[in-house]
């Protein structure tokens, strides 16, 4: 009997009956966030593990690693002992469930997502008032969509992706700087990210150690696509950082007309 055929058969059996079931089980276990009490900080945290990476790690006998934690950056670099907590100490978030949020006793950093429209900027007066009262730093954030190269009519590349990305980032940063100039008496930082809006908001807020995410909700334009129903739920599920939602004048007027 050909030994290579025997070896191939054994490998196929191992894949079908061992590796694939292990990978599928790991993927299902880690596909949604988990909440737990951080052994180091003693406070509620929400962790997210890359499900695909965890599946591969389990197949090769390695431990999964946390992809994002709501207590970062303060505890970034921890030993991730929370992954070895007993089953009852970790609770998997159900679909649509909002994570528990600690009461904010002191606000030191506020992230303000903006989309370039006047409606999204209506949150700024409220944020400025909070910042002046608490001494918090305001971090203005613009998340822009990924860019592609620019081609001419003959399908030749005239602007490469990295050049277009630089142009878009510079444009977004200039927009944030103009808004920052109007926030007198407030410490302001500016940040630009490229990618999915909700993911960018959460990652920037957690990386900055924000105590609050403040944003305006309006009906039709810009962040309306982001902050309406489903996306608002995504933000609430994705981080334990409290949200301050300020309705735009357009939305407030509509609610008043509807008797809300």
What's the arrangement of secondary structure elements?
Blueprint: H1 3-30, E1 34-37, E2 44-49, H2 51-59, E3 66-69, E4 90-92, E5 109-114, H3 118-121, H4 124-134, E6 137-144, E7 150-151, E8 157-159, H5 161-180, E9 187-194, H6 197-207, E10 212-217, H7 224-227, H8 229-238, E11 243-247, H9 249-257
Parallel strand pairs: 5-6, 5-10, 6-9, 10-11
Antiparallel strand pairs: 1-2, 1-4, 2-3, 7-8
Helix pairs in contact: 1-2, 6-8
Give structural notes.
The structure is a single chain. The longest helix has 28 residues, at 3-30. Residues 220-230 and 251-257 have low confidence and may be disordered. The strands form three sheets. The chain has a five-stranded parallel β-sheet with strand order 9-6-5-10-11, with helices on both faces. The chain has 260 residues and is α/β, with parallel strands linked by helices. The protein has helices at residues 3-30, 51-59, 118-121, 124-134, 161-180, 197-207, 224-227, 229-238, 249-257, and strands at 34-37, 44-49, 66-69, 90-92, 109-114, 137-144, 150-151, 157-159, 187-194, 212-217, 243-247. A hairpin with a 6-residue loop joins strand 1 (34-37) and strand 2. The chain has two domains: 3-92, no CATH class; 109-257, HUPs (Rossmann fold). The chain is 41% helix and 21% strand. The protein contains nine helices and eleven strands.
């Amino acid at each position: 009997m050909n030994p290579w055929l025997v070896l191939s058969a054994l490998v196929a059996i191992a894949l079908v009956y061992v590796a694939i079931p292990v990978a599928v089980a790991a993927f299902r276990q880690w596909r949604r966030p988990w909440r737990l009490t951080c052994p180091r900080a003693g406070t509620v945290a929400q962790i997210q593990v890359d499900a695909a990476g965890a599946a591969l790690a389990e197949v090769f006998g390695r431990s999964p690693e946390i992809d994002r934690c709501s207590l970062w950056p303060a505890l970034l670099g921890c030993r991730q002992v929370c992954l070895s907590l007993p089953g009852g100490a970790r609770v998997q978030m159900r679909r649509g469930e909002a994570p528990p949020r600690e009461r904010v006793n002191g606000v030191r950093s506020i992230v303000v997502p903006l989309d370039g429209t006047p409606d999204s900027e209506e949150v700024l007066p409220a944020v400025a008032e909070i910042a002046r009262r608490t001494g918090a730093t305001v971090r203005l954030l613009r998340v822009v969509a990924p860019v592609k190269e620019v081609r001419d009519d003959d399908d030749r590349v005239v602007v490469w992706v990295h050049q277009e990305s630089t142009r878009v980032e510079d444009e977004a940063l200039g927009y944030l700087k103009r808004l920052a100039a109007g926030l007198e008496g407030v410490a302001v930082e500016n940040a630009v990210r490229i990618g999915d809006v909700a993911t960018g908001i959460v990652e920037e807020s957690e990386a900055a150690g924000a105590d609050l995410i403040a944003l305006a909700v309006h009906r039709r334009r810009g962040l309306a696509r982001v902050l309406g129903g489903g996306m608002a739920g995504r933000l609430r599920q994705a981080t334990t950082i409290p949200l301050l939602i300020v309705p735009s004048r357009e939305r407030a007027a509509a609610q008043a007309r509807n008797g809300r």
